[in-house]
Design brief:
alpha+beta, Peroxidase, domain 1, 13 helices, Haem_peroxidase, Immunoglobulin-like, heme binding, binds 2-acetamido-2-deoxy-beta-D-glucopyranose, four-stranded antiparallel beta sheet, metal-binding, about 525 residues
Amino acid sequence: MLKLALLTSLVTANAYIWPSPQLDALEALRWDQDRNGITALIQPCDFFIFGSAKSGRSNAADWIRTVFHDMATHNKADGTGGMDASIRFAEEQGRPKASFALRDGFSNTVAVLQPVANRYISIADALAVGAILAIENCAGPEIAFRGGRVDAAEPNLPGVPEPQQDLDSHIASFARQGFTQTEMIGLVAYILSAEFSIRRSPILCPELNDPSNTQSVAHFDTTNTHFDNRVATEYIAGTTQNPLVVGLNQTTNSDKRIFGSDGNATMRSFANSPDLFASTCADLFARMIDTVPAGVQLTEVITPLPVKPHNLNLILAANNTIQFSGEVRLWNVAEDADPVVRLLWDDRTGRKTNNVTVVQDSVVTVSGGRYNAAWYVFDHIATPALARLDAVAGITSIRFTVDNKLEDQGGVGFAVQDDIMFAASSCFTLDSNNGDTGRFDVAVRTGVDPTRVYLEQSARDSVDRPTTIEIDLTPHPVDPNATFGIWSITQALSFTSFTIGAEIGGAKVTRGLPTSVFGFGQCSQVE
Ligand SMILES: *[C@@H]1O[C@H](CO)[C@@H](O)[C@H](O)[C@H]1NC(C)=O
Ligand SMILES: *[C@@H]1O[C@H](CO)[C@@H](O)[C@H](O)[C@H]1NC(C)=O
Ligand SMILES: *[C@@H]1O[C@H](CO)[C@@H](O)[C@H](O)[C@H]1NC(C)=O
Ligand SMILES: *[C@@H]1O[C@H](CO)[C@@H](O)[C@H](O)[C@H]1NC(C)=O
Ligand SMILES: *[C@@H]1O[C@H](CO)[C@@H](O)[C@H](O)[C@H]1NC(C)=O
């Protein structure tokens, strides 16, 4: 049992204090790879969701290529362009300068990664994480991720380099994006070539491909499902198949010009050292995805929290009780770790000895086998004691012990909001005469006094950026002696999930997990 090794000390350096809605979401996207929906699309590394593996295409390569094209519009001098998901606009995808790439790779990438975006995760952040995970899960290096990119409302000015341009144009183009000549060589080696299976266009390399077969692909090295330095070793050895080096038309042999522009010094150093190739790649790639328009403020590097509560939820249930449920993730545990984990909680009475043992759900491996995360659940089945907390006492903060070692964020604890929550009296009515309806009841603790309570629904604005629709609820008559007052809305029945929003003292707060009214009972049975 106790082969436990909690190797958490290495990863705590930049950790933030939980909770932070945006950082929690970004951290989960970056590190909870078994559940973020992204990693499944790049395992195995040559998996291609839009066609057969035989096409030589892969989601991973498309994602890497897409972030380069999104970034390459950056103009360091005037601060415009950069990683802002402007590549999602058809106008950018259709530009002549993008024609050497497999253009549908951009729309494919946006189609699969955009759904990950929400009010805390911009589309550009989703694209950045997709490319990081593509590299990381294809045996490439781990790349630092910062969040907070802002999605553009319109296409950027053109700026992607073209293969038929001369060396001076390429040096100038990368300088405009903020990269030196040596960095250009590295970026081209990684982004334009080491994306394992790569673009071709009938215009660019007809000598290598049948122009009528738009799915055929010229690989840039022989290990096209694996991220390594072969792009450099094969180039130096003179055995490269890179069509931008050995193409018959010298005009479009841009990689040959770029790689040779320092007498092959950079490429030789990569060929001689896989480690240098990997570390330089990680640094340059991080700089590339952090190339954002002026004024955009990125977060600190998102490192995994050693102990992280997740999906916490409270529901006001019958007889003035609260159901509390959630999960906790222990980061970087041994694969066979099964420590005794206890959840402790403080309540409004100041009591600090409440505690319950929580149950291990799974140990998952992420980041291409680098880390294990252990998940523990607490819900009305696994931990019945949490299904009927006294609503008056409530719950204000939680802590954990892991084999008796206290995990409380250095004494801060993990704050829990027990002021506003869905009530279990929410219900739906099936009515073939007047139309099916759902009623959401939201419980608001007496004394909180919000000016508004509303349902929040995820939506997209006219240019596809994540946004939130607010649907106001109506308060029931107030009983000052009740622990909670109720706000309600009855509306046409739908599967839509909502979180709760409220305005308290002029500030907006969000509570609860996305919840469908089907999570509750039929009204006739509840009342
Ligand atoms: C070589 O490529 C350039 C740029 O695409 C093109 O203008 C030129 O006609 C090509 N030359 C040959 C011989 O195909
Ligand atoms: C770089 O190396 C390649 C492959 O060995 C060779 O063909 C080319 O001439 C070299 N370029 C320079 C500038 O040394
Ligand atoms: C609420 O309390 C009443 C009276 O003690 C009991 O009959 C009922 O089963 C309780 N309801 C629930 C959902 O526990
Ligand atoms: C856990 O709860 C028990 C009573 O159920 C109590 O005796 C014990 O002190 C609690 N442990 C902690 C660490 O608070
Ligand atoms: C609230 O409680 C007080 C004291 O028990 C009582 O006098 C009062 O009538 C109650 N008010 C309501 C609205 O029930």
